Amino acid sequence: MQSGILRALGAYLIWSLFPIYFKALQAIPPQEVLLHRMAWSVLFLFAILLVRRNWKWLWSALQDPTTLKTFSLSALLISANWYVYIWAVQENRVVDASLGYFINPLFNVLLGVFLLRERLRPVQWTAIALAAAGVLWLTVKAGQLPWIALSLAATFGTYGLIRKTAHLGAQEGLMVETALLFPFATALLAWLAATGQSGFVNEGWHYRSLLILAGPLTVIPLLLYASGARRIPYSLMGILQYVTPTVQFMLGVFLWHEPFNQTKLVGFSFIWLGLALYTAESLITSQLRKKPC
């Protein structure tokens, strides 16, 4: 179990430091960073599959219409999620992005209710109401929806739901998604290079190295997460997941000094209280179910 905790924690810590990585790429437009993330991820994954000699399934998966439809949708969702996140970091909106991943667990619960017909207990509804109150507060005070947070939560939550019901594992699913995106990504990258707009070509080896690093930085935490999830209880994974938005929130406020006034504090506090209530109720319920009657 200890190795599972370390692997899961390693994944969440890598994800939590993504803002530092994307900040280092501020000279590269977010859309180009996204394209490189797509391209280098599939190349890195394919190298892993070759080493493991576990690539023969890929051709049959890409020929299956159901698999293509499912993973085309998941590829679009994860691409949108990646783009919004990269843009938010480069635009100094790390705190707003962290809010999306604080909201995400409760958004997943709502997806379960409305799409999977799951039933919630009263305390869970209270937790969601508190989070909704926080979002409403931020919306009224700011004069607009916290669209970055909601976009990240919606795209990643829906993506997770699709992947939960898909028949491929984490590594295989990501391989299919990136394989579907690869032709478009490489074609657009070639067009940028041909028209003199490519940061990869124009900005020197420092940026080229960072862009190539997008492949392993995307794949490695996913593999750690998948490996850790198989070794520890799901409830513990639910607690560990808050490492990522917490660290990112602290980076935004204390390292980059993004604005976090009293208005934001009130809104975030409602959401944090809802998360704490939901997590505590889930843990207590899980422990009670384990007790012998």
TrEMBL record:
Q: Does the keyword DNA-binding apply?
A: no
Instruction: Indicate how the chain sits in the lipid bilayer.
Output: Multi-pass membrane protein
Under InterPro entries, the record lists: EamA_dom (IPR000620), EmrE-like (IPR037185), RarD (IPR004626)
Q: Where are the transmembrane segments?
A: 5-22, 34-51, 71-88, 94-116, 123-139, 145-162, 174-193, 205-227, 239-257, 263-280
Question: What are the alphabetically sorted keywords of the record?
Answer: Cell membrane, Membrane, Transmembrane, Transmembrane helix, Transport
**Ranges for domain EamA:** 3-139, 149-278
Cellular localization per UniProt: Cell membrane
- Annotated signal sequence range: none
Q: Does the keyword Membrane apply?
A: yes
Where it mainly occurs, coarsely classed, is membrane
Can you cite an annotated GO cellular component? plasma membrane
List, alphabetically, the PANTHER family matched. Answer: ACYL-MALONYL CONDENSING ENZYME-RELATED (PTHR22911), SOLUTE CARRIER FAMILY 35 MEMBER G2-RELATED (PTHR22911:SF137)
Protein family (similarity comment): Belongs to the EamA transporter family.
What protein name is recorded for this chain? Chloramphenicol-sensitive protein RarD
UniProt source species: Formivibrio citricus
Q: What is the lineage of its organism?
A: Bacteria, Pseudomonadati, Pseudomonadota, Betaproteobacteria, Neisseriales
